[in-house]
Each structure stands twice: as structure tokens, then as C-alpha cells.
Design a protein that fits this description.
It is a single chain. The chain is 28% helix and 24% strand. It has 79 residues and is α+β, with helices and mostly antiparallel strands. It starts with 11 loop residues before the first strand and ends with a helix. The chain has two domains: 1-41, no CATH class; 48-79, no CATH class. Strands 1-2-3 form a three-stranded antiparallel beta sheet, with no helix packed on it. It contains two helices and three strands; from the N terminus they run βββαα. The structure holds zinc ion.
Length: 79
């Protein structure tokens, strides 16, 4: 059960999907306040896919310079 970001109720139901820049997202309808929401998976409002972001963070953690991370990510197909 997903928690409504508007009223914090947990009686939401699945209500179709929403097209976003990173693909389809499951949409929910809150039965308490009757509003739609998409669960926050920690990557909301990011321009790139979670896969690209985690790959970039992984490279940063390995001590690779930011410039090299950018060139590695932009030449790969994960964007
Ligand atoms: Zn609600």
C-alpha cells in the first residue's frame, strides 16, 4: 500500500500509468483525498534514469574524476 504524499493516508489504489521522461510510472489514486500521485522512488524530478544516476555515483565512489564520469556515462547507452 502506497502512502499518499498529500494527506499521508495509506488507502490508495493503483490508477493507471503516467508517461514520464524516464518511462512509464505507476499512478495511484488516494481514496482519502481523491488526488493522484506517483510514489517517490528517490529519483523523482531527475532528468536521467535511475540506472544512469547510480552508475555515475558508482564511478564517483571508485575515485574516478567527474570529467571521466561524464564522458563514460555519455558514451554508454544507459542514458
Ligand atoms: Zn491523500
Amino acid at each position: 500500500m502506497k502512502k499518499c504524499p498529500h494527506c499521508k493516508a495509506t488507502n490508495s489504489v493503483r490508477h493507471g500509468v503516467r508517461q514520464t521522461s524516464v518511462g512509464l510510472k505507476r499512478k495511484y489514486l488516494c481514496k482519502a483525498c481523491n488526488r493522484h500521485f506517483t510514489p517517490d522512488e528517490g529519483f523523482n524530478r531527475f532528468r536521467h534514469s535511475p540506472k544512469a544516476i547510480t552508475a555515475a555515483l558508482d564511478l564517483c565512489a571508485k575515485g574516478i574524476s567527474l570529467a571521466d564520469v561524464v564522458s563514460t556515462i555519455s558514451t554508454s547507452t544507459i542514458m
